[in-house]
Amino acid sequence: MQLPFVVVLFLALAVLLAVGILVVVAMPHLRAPREEDDGPGAEHPRHTSRTGRG
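Above: the chain's sequence. Below: its structure in token form.
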């Protein structure tokens, strides 16, 4: 094999590996919101008053 072919093959494999890692890391963030997520404007139970006065 010629050296430039090996270098190009190595770089292509490195790019594919990097893209694969990015996809694996990004997949949890790209999923559709679950049923319990009512959107950004919904009040979350943690943010309500514990005393019930507000």
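The helical segments are 3-30.
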